[in-house]
From TrEMBL:
PROSITE patterns to which the protein is assigned, alphabetical: OMPA_1, OMPA_2
Main location: membrane
PANTHER family hit by this protein: LIPOPROTEIN YIAD-RELATED, STATOR ELEMENT OF FLAGELLAR MOTOR COMPLEX
Region of interest called Disordered, as start-end residue ranges on this chain: 30-66
Biological source species: Kushneria phosphatilytica
Protein's UniProt name: Peptidoglycan-associated protein
Amino acid sequence: MQFTNYAKTLTAALSLAVIAGCSSGGGTQDGEMGGMSSGNTGANAQGMSSSQGAQGSSMGQNDQMPSETTVYFDFDSSNIRSEYESVLNRNASYLQSHPDTNVVLEGHTDPRGTREYNMALGERRANSVKQYLTIQGVSASQIEVVSYGEERPAMQGNSEQAYAKDRRVVIDY
């Protein structure tokens, strides 16, 4: 009976090790993961192309701080949209190649909802991005999470366009 429990525990541990290995090895380069998502063709082409632009090699891409550092969310959601996976992969690649660099993930919301709810939602969004980056291999010690809720709007106004810009996480280097 004890051997059966030991075997089950060992099997579960091996399964987790395989899953962890697959998840961290899946995004070795920006283009690989970006090619799987079809949301933003401009970003995918930029990540996969090595002959366009000033950085000719993948080493150059990892040495340069990513220019896109904002991830937008749907209303009342902390799920990362597939179109932003390539943005996060580029940031993860940069952070992995620069282990001394730290970032602050700033979670924001639109003004709808109570102050407490928006603070919690901003934190959930920032933690979603943190989880994504750590799965890609970034050390959790490089990441700090802050929620601003609705306090720092990106765009003034009460339109859906303004609200969409407010629902975001900013990766602050």
